[in-house]
Amino acid sequence: MIKLACAGDNCIDYYGATGEKYPGGNPVNVAVYARRLGGAASYIGAVGTDENGKLLLNALEGKGVDVSRVHIVEGATALTHVAIVNGDRVFGDYHEGVMEGFALTQEDITFIEKHDMLVSGLWGRVEGELKRISERGVPIAFDCSDRPESPQALVALAAADIAFFSDDISDDAALRARIRAIAAQGPRVVVATRGARGSLAYDGAGFTEQGIIDCTVVDTMGAGDSFLAGFLCAYLRGGSTKGCLLAGAQSSAVTLGYRGAW
């Protein structure tokens, strides 16, 4: 069974119009979706001693995610205010809480070494440790969000094996040039997600495209993260670039069909 270590940010997504709360955050979501896809997953991050921290931990445990290396810190768990406008998520205020001081410990890194891959992202506060983890033989996947040229992303890309970013604005030629520039930073595989326009990957040998899977869209929260999980699970099982993109699209289509990330 494949085993992902997912490290970095978490939050509670709070829908003010309804009062609903859902656990979320890039590595949190990827861990849950990896479990949904039949893999094993661990989450490493920091939560507060408040009710939101308990909510997040209980939810992860309920999905079968290993939370044994989560740091429980006196204070508030990260919180994001969310609204849904025409089926799309709109983010409001974000309070980072105890994640502001999160850093991987040596014990965390030793734990990560027992996994097939480490997954993190732009707000995970772990980019400075990725080179050291990579040198210990753990493949790295990093989600740059829509900012692959940011300082944090540039540090991560030098250590990453697979890089993801989102770009639903650039035309095809500009996007391919942008992907090649990211690949030149170090990753063997670079994947751009394009919303309704599907995805585009570059693996050093050439480009591969994938369209979306038709589905009913209830809430876009977590769609990108579920794409990552689908792609990475297929990749670790030896899938082709085309097969990994298709697995990502299929995973995303499932998530789009319900409210909240998971």
Order of helices and strands: EEEHEEHEEEHEHEHEHEEEHH
**Approximately how much beta-strand content do the residues carry?**
25-35%
The overall average pLDDT, rounded, is 94
- What structural class results from the helix and strand content? alpha/beta
Domains counted in the coordinates: how many? 1
Write the CATH fold name: UDP-N-acetylmuramoyl-L-alanine:D-glutamate ligase
Radius of gyration: 17 Å
Shape: globular
Extended strand count: 14
Given this structure, which CATH class is correct?
Answer: Alpha Beta
What is the H level of CATH, i.e. the homologous superfamily?
A: Ribokinase
Biggest β-sheet description:
8 strands, mixed
Count helical runs. 8
DSSP helix fraction = 25-40%
Low-confidence stretches: none
Strand order in the sheet with the most strands: 4-1-9-10-11-12-13-14
Overview of this protein structure:
The chain contains eight helices and 14 strands. With 262 residues, it is an alpha/beta fold. It has one domain: UDP-N-acetylmuramoyl-L-alanine:D-glutamate ligase. α7 (223-236) packs antiparallel against α8. 48% of the residues are buried.
Could you give a short description of this structure?
This protein is an alpha/beta fold and 262 residues long. The chain is built from 8 helices and 14 strands. Helix 1 packs across helix 7 and helix 7 packs antiparallel against helix 8 (241-255).
Features:
8 helices; 262 residues; alpha/beta; 14 strands; UDP-N-acetylmuramoyl-L-alanine:D-glutamate ligase; 8-stranded mixed beta sheet; 4-stranded mixed beta sheet
